[in-house]
Automatic annotation (TrEMBL):
Keywords, comma-separated and alphabetical: Isomerase, Magnesium, Metal-binding, Phosphoprotein
Catalytic-site annotation from UniProt: 74 (phosphoserine intermediate)
Residue ranges constituting the Alpha-D-phosphohexomutase C-terminal domain according to the UniProt record: 513-557
Binding site for Mg(2+): 74, 292, 294, 296
Catalyzed reactions per annotation: N-acetyl-alpha-D-glucosamine 1-phosphate = N-acetyl-D-glucosamine 6-phosphate
Function (record text): Interconverts GlcNAc-6-P and GlcNAc-1-P.
Name used for this protein in its record: Phosphoacetylglucosamine mutase
InterPro entries: A-D-PHexomutase_a/b/a-I, A-D-PHexomutase_a/b/a-I/II/III, A-D-PHexomutase_C, A-D-PHexomutase_C_sf, A-D-PHexomutase_CS, AMG1_II, AMG1_III, PAGM
Species name: Panicum virgatum
Necessary cofactors: Mg(2+)
Cofactor note as given: Binds 1 Mg(2+) ion per subunit.
Length: 564
């Protein structure tokens, strides 16, 4: 009993001590969203320290399962930084812990923080004390404030008695998520294991490319814009070991090459539709890919013409379409393989998008006979929905997305491969299709969107299909769109339904949107409140750019009139 009391006193002392070392800056308010906590790097230490406490408590709650912390501000400018927590499955922290995360980060003084933690652990039934261990894996990107914030995170973790922190160094965000997932599955989880899995599964994918589709040297050439971030650094480390592809990394993060995310990176290319820093007219016709600062987003592009800096863009919607086409094709080969008596593979394939997906991509996928569903904006919603399928594919237009395969499906696939292994030498189409799906499931990072693994899967599929960048572009033609922001007094006065595609409050706004939309061919428009500021976002599509602009403006005026 005395020992328990001593541990309780020690726990209280540690929490009060760490909270007094990292006082909340005046005027700062932190909010935990899809990106975790994010702000100017120099102000982030208190939030990062408290995220350390949070991650350790999460691990104790989950019986000592490994939880991850990644210190990054992703595609934000170099001066910003942030912190987010990965749950044991490698996904984002469970949403119902977010209100506690906010309260903890904004606790005004040490006593308030202590009371908050004690009340929360009581409500959640979290056993604090030395008998209960926690393990937290930490990674960070290349930002100059990363090391200083790592120390704050370590101090937060160590404020929970029995917690153990493992610093994994400088990593991409998806690497950290992959390592957390792997560690909790009881499989090898180091950075070299991650690289080995990527290199080996990419090689297997290329070995399964039909001989008549191998393509010329240009088809195997890829220029990658590394956003002067960690993704470029890691790609430089492994590119020599990737056979069957010639990768040239620009904005690789080397000293003097440029500034993180400044005029480069997936976010810049997707929004501006121009070449990133370091690209020139000499690159016309070559396939290019762009990662963001922490390598969890990926877009492709091609320099359109030697006379200007515009690009032909392939965004997340078209990456998703390529993946969906490939997986559907392999399933069809397995299940409709001529007259042979074969074991079919039952699989429910689901495509998950948000309302921001271009309408042309949704129509393309539906025309293939695929099941397409929508969720509210945010990776946490997309990933959760994708897990409901045997194979779930999701992407946002910004290039964040992945494919998830259910354990049951992979087990069926393995049985099928074993049953048909004797046919391997005879070139059985069904066996090869099953092997391709298995290799794809190992190449893609199933924990989270990963620009490195995603780009290698794109490259393997393009080689398998014998496609050029142009073939890929021609899958469908994007509908012109326009996004606008309308400042409002209170964004919560807009309430949406049907995955943010319809407005339920104010009651007459949806009727006005429908009326405006009806004036345009292929017209589509929705509005939604911003998650971070008092603005309402308006998205409009139509068959011509001038019409999309006009529709967005008309609806923005209605929003302004009702709520401004």
């Amino acid at each position: 009993m005395a020992a328990n009391q001593e541990q309780e006193q020690e726990q209280r002392r540690r929490l009060l001590d760490v909270a007094s070392r990292f006082p909340l800056p005046s005027g700062c308010r932190f909010s935990y969203g899809t990106a975790g906590f994010r702000a100017y790097g120099a102000t982030m230490a208190p939030a990062v320290c408290r995220a350390g406490i949070l991650a350790a408590l999460r691990s104790v709650k989950l019986a000592g399962a490994a939880v991850g912390i990644v210190i990054t501000a992703s595609h934000n400018p170099v001066g910003d930084n942030g912190v987010k927590i990965a749950d044991p499955d490698g996904g984002m922290m469970a949403q119902h812990w977010e209100p506690f995360a906010d309260a903890l980060a904004n606790a005004p003084d040490p006593d308030a923080l202590l009371q908050l933690v004690l009340q929360f652990v009581k409500n959640e039934g979290i056993p604090l004390g030395g008998h209960h261990t926690a393990q937290v894996l930490l990674g960070r990107d290349t930002r100059p404030t990363g090391e200083y914030l790592l120390d704050a995170a370590l101090q937060g973790i160590n404020a929970i008695v029995g917690a153990h922190a493992i610093d994994l160094g400088i990593l991409t965000t998806p690497q950290l998520h992959w390592m957390v997932r792997s560690k909790n599955k009881g499989i090898k989880a180091s950075e070299s294991d991650y690289f080995t899995q990527l290199i080996d599964s990419f090689r297997r994918m290329l070995e399964l490319v039909p001989k008549d589709k191998s393509g010329d040297e240009l088809a195997k050439k890829l220029i990658v814009d590394g956003a002067n971030g960690i993704g470029g650094v890691k790609l430089e480390q492994i590119k020599a070991k990737l056979s069957g592809i010639d990768i040239n990394v620009r904005n690789s993060g080397k000293e003097g090459e440029g500034i993180l995310n400044h005029m480069c990176g997936a976010d810049f290319v997707q929004k501006e539709r121009v070449t990133p820093h370091g690209f020139s007219p000499e690159d016309v016709g070559v396939r290019c890919a762009s990662l963001d600062g922490d390598a969890d987003r990926l877009v492709y592009f091609r320099v359109s013409s030697p006379s200007d800096n515009k690009v032909d863009l392939v965004d997340g919607d078209k990456i998703l379409s390529l993946f969906a086409l490939f997986i559907r094709e392999q399933l069809d080969i397995i299940n409709n393989n001529g007259s042979q008596v074969n074991k079919s593979l039952s699989a429910r394939l689901g495509i998950v998008q948000t309302a921001y997906a271009n309408g042309a991509s949704t129509q393309f996928l539906k025309n293939l006979g695929l099941e397409v569903v929508f969720t509210p904006t945010g990776v946490k919603y997309l990933h959760k929905k994708a897990l409901e399928y045997d194979i779930g594919i999701y992407f946002e237009a910004n290039g964040h997305g992945t494919i998830v395969f259910s354990e049951d499906f992979l087990s069926q696939l393995e049985s099928l491969i074993n049953d048909h292994s004797s046919e391997a030498a005879n070139g059985s189409a069904q066996y090869h299709a099953a092997m391709r799906l298995m290799a794809a499931s190992q190449l893609i990072n199933q924990a989270v969107g990963d620009a490195l693994s995603g780009s290698l899967l794109v490259e393997a599929i393009l080689q398998y299909k014998g496609w050029s960048f142009q073939n890929w572009c021609e899958l469908y033609c994007d509908l012109p769109s326009r996004q606008l922001k309308v400042k409002v007094i209170d964004r919560s006065s807009i309430v949406t339904t049907d995955a943010e595609t319809k407005v339920s409050q104010p009651s007459n706004l949806q009727e006005l949107i429908d009326k405006e939309t009806a004036n345009y061919t292929h017209g589509r428009c929705f509005v939604r409140p911003s998650g971070t500021e008092d603005v309402v976002r308006v998205y409009a599509e139509a068959s011509m750019q001038v019409e999309a602009d006009s529709l967005a403006r008309s609806v923005a005026q209605h929003v302004e009139h009702l709520l401004g």
